[in-house]
């Protein structure tokens, strides 16, 4: 096997995705993840077993102020050069709960977000498009 | 006192709360369904619980009112253990003290949360900063609308 092929093979699943599914957006994430071929097409493998084995965190759902420290902890447990995708309106900005007393107005208030996917919820294809964009950006 | 009405509600004064609940328990209402409250403005805070008789397949609601300030009720956890979480939530959301509750910590709100968010006077700060974009009826104009719920009159709150 030629060296370049081997290296390419090693990079096939270069996005190891930690799914932080907190609300209904997680269903869309699951719908996309269930299509293993589609995920592989964007070089992503979903459902990392633990934060330190992941390099992309996808926050799909509503983050509350009480839950926020735990999301932050997951981020801190990931390798230092990891990426964060905010998936859906709630994770982006609080979504329909923007005026709630308990909902965090965007997960980017506590962790740096690399890519935002809009929608309430976004379609599964939007997750794939977001992962593809992230791949392009990583280069 | 047993009623065949599915939504039967029984009003009791707050000092008869535990007695009435105890009586329900003794008359076969063995299953605790839920307990919550609502803000009834000048009439105080109304606390409602619903219990269910598994054998008779019949439920009844019990309602009382407590004062807005310093309102308290005896806990029902000695009758139905399931009331514990509901009372904790009601306590933090409405500011009602449940006397002799075995574990009176807040249930859902983060540590250090100030205020009781399901009371009508609780200010939704986000709505003060940005107008609520919704409407109660289709076609309702934004311009002619009254203040949205949770927003005090201009000048009544904030800088």
Can you walk through the features of this model?
- The complex is a heterodimer of chains A (139) and B (159).
- Helix content of chain A is 38%, strand content 16%.
- Chain A has 139 residues and is α/β, with parallel strands linked by helices.
- In chain A, strands 2-1-3-4-5 form a five-stranded parallel sheet.
- The longest helix of chain A is centred in the last third of the chain and has 15 residues, at 124-138.
- The mean pLDDT of chain A is 90.
- By secondary structure, chain B is an alpha/beta fold.
- Chain B contains three helices and six strands.
- In chain B, the strands form two sheets. In chain B, strands 1-4-3-2 form a four-stranded mixed sheet. A two-stranded parallel ribbon of chain B has the order 5-6.
- In chain B, β5 (72-74), α2 (83-94) and β6 (97-99) form a beta-alpha-beta unit.
- The longest helix of chain B has 12 residues, at 83-94.
- Chain B starts with 8 loop residues before the first strand and ends in a 30-residue tail after the last helix.
- The chains are: A alpha/beta (139), B alpha/beta (159).
- Chain A binds chain B through residues 64-66, 94, 98-102, 105, and chain B through 108-110, 113, 115, 117, 122, 124, 126-127, 130, 132, 150.
Notable characteristics:
heterodimer; A: 139 residues; alpha/beta; five-stranded parallel sheet; 6 helices; 16% strand; globular; B: Beta Polymerase, domain 2; 2 domains
Assembly state = heterodimer
Taking strands numbered 1, 2, ... along the chain, how are they ordered across the largest sheet of chain A? 2-1-3-4-5
Largest sheet of chain B: 4 strands, mixed
CATH superfamily of the largest domain in chain B: NADH:ubiquinone oxidoreductase Nqo5 subunit
Overall mean confidence score, pLDDT of chain A: 90
Q: Domain count of chain B, please report it.
A: 2
Taking all Cα atoms into account, the compactness measure Rg of chain B is 19 Å
The radius of gyration of chain A is 15 Å
Strand tally of chain A is 5
CATH architecture of the largest domain in chain B: 2-Layer Sandwich
Structural class based on helices, strands and sheet pairing of chain B = alpha/beta
Number of separate helices of chain B: 3
Number of strands of chain B: 6
CATH topology of the largest domain in chain B: Beta Polymerase, domain 2
> What form of chain B results from the Cα inertia axes?
globular
Estimated helix fraction of chain B: 10-25%
């Amino acid at each position: 096997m030629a060296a370049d092929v081997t290296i390419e093979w090693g990079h096939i699943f270069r996005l190891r995705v930690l799914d932080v599914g907190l609300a209904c957006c997680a269903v869309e994430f699951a719908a996309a993840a269930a299509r293993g071929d589609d995920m592989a097409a964007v070089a992503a493998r979903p459902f990392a077993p633990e934060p330190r084995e992941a390099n992309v965190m996808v926050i799909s759902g509503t983050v509350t102020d009480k839950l926020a420290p735990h999301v932050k902890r997951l981020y801190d447990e990931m390798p230092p050069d990891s990426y964060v995708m905010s998936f859906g309106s709630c994770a982006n900005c609080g979504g329909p709960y923007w005026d709630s007393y308990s909902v965090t107005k965007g997960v980017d208030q506590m962790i740096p977000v690399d890519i935002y996917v809009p929608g309430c919820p976004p379609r599964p294809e939007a997750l794939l498009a977001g992962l593809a964009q992230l791949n392009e950006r990583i280069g | 006192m047993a009623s065949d009405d599915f939504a039967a509600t029984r009003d009791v004064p707050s000092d008869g709360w535990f007695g009435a609940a105890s009586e329900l328990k003794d008359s076969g209402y063995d299953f605790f369904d839920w307990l919550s409250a609502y803000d009834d403005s000048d009439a105080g805070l109304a606390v409602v619980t619903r219990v269910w008789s598994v054998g008779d397949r019949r439920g009844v609601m019990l309602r009382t009112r407590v004062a807005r300030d310093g309102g308290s009720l005896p806990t029902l956890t000695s009758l139905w253990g399931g009331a514990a979480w509901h009372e904790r939530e009601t306590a933090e959301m409405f500011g009602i003290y449940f006397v002799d509750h075995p574990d009176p910590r807040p249930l859902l709100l983060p540590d250090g949360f100030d205020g009781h968010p399901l009371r009508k006077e609780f200010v939704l700060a986000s709505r003060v900063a940005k107008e609520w974009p919704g409407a109660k009826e289709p076609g309702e104009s934004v311009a002619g609308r009254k203040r949205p719920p949770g927003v005090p009159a201009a000048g009544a709150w904030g800088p």
